[in-house]
Please model this.
Amino acid sequence: MPPINLTLNGKPWSVDADPDMPLLWAVREIAGKTGSKFGCGAAQCGACTMHVDGQPVRACSTPIGSIAGSKVTTIEGIEGKVAKAVQDAWVKLDVVQCGYCQSGQIMSAVALLTDNAKPTDQDIDSAMSGNLCRCSTYVRIRAAIHAAAKALEI
Amino acid sequence: MPDGHMTQSPESASRRRFLQVTGGAGVGLMVGFTWTGTSRRAQAAAAAAKAFEPNAFVTVAPDNTVTVLIKHLEMGQGVFTGLTAIVAEEMDADWAQMRAEHAPANAKLYNNTAFGPIQGTGGSTSVYNSWTQLRQAGATARALLVAAAAQTWGVPASAITVSKGVVSSGTHKATFGELAATAATLPVPADVPLKDPKSFTLVGTKLPRKDSAEKTTGKAVFAIDVVQPGMLVAVVQRPPRFGATAQAIDAKAAKAVKGVVEVVQIPRGVAVLATSYWAAHQGREALKVTWDESKAERRGTEAIIADYKALLPKPGQLVTKEGDVDAVKGAKTLKAEFTFPYLAHAPMEPLTCVVKLGKDACEIWAGDQFQTIDQANAAKTAGLKPEQVTIHTVYAGGSFGRRANVESDYIVEGVSIAKALSDAKVQGGKLAGRPVKLIWSREDDIRGGRYRPLYVHGMEAKLGADGSVLAWRHRIVGQSIMAGSPFEQPGKPDATSVEGAAEIPYTIPNRLVDLHTTTSPVPVLWWRSVGSTHTAFAVETFIDELAAEARQDPVAFRRKLMEKHPRHLAVLNLAVEKADWGKPLPKGWARGVAVAESFRSVVAHVAEVSQDDKGRIKVERVVCAVDCGIAVTPDVVKAQMEGGIGFGLGAVMFGAITMTDGVVDQANFDSYRCLRIDEMPKVEVHIVPSANPPTGVGEPGVPPLGPAVANAIAALTGKRIRDLPFAGSVSV
Model:
């Protein structure tokens, strides 16, 4: 099998893997980047959320062979104004508890704010409802997204 | 969690002597002040080897960082922040210089003083049991730093002040780091005065969490992230029915999967080892196992419920008897039956551990919640002594009780697999010593048992003509969590089945509580707030029903019965005041209230629910009041209440593990539905000011949530939901 070529966090990435291998495991076990988490393996919880060509995807259910040539961004590689505003708001409001789902939450939140600079509570609920948090940090996730949106206005 | 029924007071362990440790590389001040380049584990091990009883919680490095060794597991509840704050307060340290790190497994140094000689986390005891211990550790460290400054500067200790990590006297100034080496040479004072809580400057204020930054950048390390050289990844095929064992294995197809290295049988199933999770997962899909199901549970949950209900008319083991329930005649009688399903914890990080087993040593990386129990079970499995097992506790991706079990289930699985590889018959022993990372899939987790037990309750009350409650009978049927554990109290009613029902804050002259403890191969476990997950629901919805029957306001009704419990009353009053109880709500909305004590704290919730034109119930807002003694880190207390509300709400709305012919019906988050952000109500948390020592906050937010919502639904629709989850009765 020929290697699959992609871009991971801005760098070329050539993966020698079964094309059916989910992106999540290729990133975690082959590229060694463990910030994206395994929570369900079935696109049910969002802990594995990465950006593929700027769009949030559930990496646990995305075969690596299906995204050859794409640009993949993980929590380790996320950068820019929106990402910084989101991460700053997350820290300022102490959103996290166990923290396990938060990489995925942040990836979804950055994608939301990139598309929609001033989301309502409803926009947030709809964009973030694919990301489970068993600690139920939802109240603070909503507040942090609003805070990040506000910080980006300035 | 195990709790409350233990023997040792928090104070007894905290009187242990502090002492100094010296080492070849330099001098460390014990409480202890350590030095760069010397591992704390080596230091602790050295101290233990000399059979000292040090209180090794604090190290001050020359770079001026103060590290607090956290004996509890950080699983989201905020112990890295709360426990560190206690030490920082007594040291008069600067919050920015404080660090937190998990302590090694050592029951002598790091036992939970509420559990006895066990290091472990649970029962919302972390701050409660550490309060005096860590205040003394911090105060002793401060006293030694002051003594070091006094000696260096030639001034009396009384002329020295400490503020925000700076020690000063007149023109002299020094940081903790600058004084550490001198402090390490000084005698440790025996009795160090603790601060007057009135002078606290950190405790009781909003302090940033110590783990926020690394958890928002993906840098925080969980067990699933641990990598060891030569490591194999393992998944285990477990039996489809609880109590079954593997009879025959056909591993041919599994071994043919690229990346699969070996298949081994362990007591709990069959493990597939591979070079990656993906390969191990595929290997398991190809594995064929025949199970011996002669001892397996074959009942479905409906049959179990029917069996439990058949016990309801029969008297059980006596728990509480006050007055004479049967002597009350001629009053109006109300009866109610409740059913509570099995519940999975479903922490976001599925159970995972990494095990490296050598000939005479074993290292384990895990979000370890019962360190010394896991250490002992791992040692037994590996054929080693407990002191040959090193536990590296890392962050846990949630737990809610799941990672604390006396059989150390997933840890023992990991060690069993590593041990199987060391067998000379397995590939000639060439896999011996290879580290193993065991990962449970979500399906393994949902179907793997150790659930909140299924319970059935029967209640009966007698009301006087004036609405007074004359008699109260409460019968509980279900499995014991404690049975067979070190926390069991033989001969006594199972505490985890009846807590929250045995004692209630309502004064009723005739009261009888009894219990039928059942058995089943379905393994059960404490689940965030344990017995109060069901007892508080039964008690608080039934009280509400009695208030309605007596045509009284549910708050006024409770207040009258609660006169002898001023703490509960104060919490109830704060919640209803902040929720504007009695003030009209929009059409299609209603309020409900509930109050419950658990883990020494009291919480009241007022829930506002709405119903849309399709009949769908939504919880719009929850106003919470909590009395947890001194709120060490109030923002963490608030976060725990917010989290408890969401966790409790998801469970009562749609949480249920059911079985058909003994096989679990749910598998992943699609069938085991958990609360999502669009279902999360707005939350307001109010903390009752208190000067009492701190009590639990991790769990107490959960118990009153279900009944507050159920009572609001009843107020809105007239429907009393007694079979959980609500999804079986109303549209959610």
User: Anything to note?
Assistant: Chain B is about 30% helix and 25% strand. The CA atoms of residues 388 and 664 of chain B lie 38 Å apart.
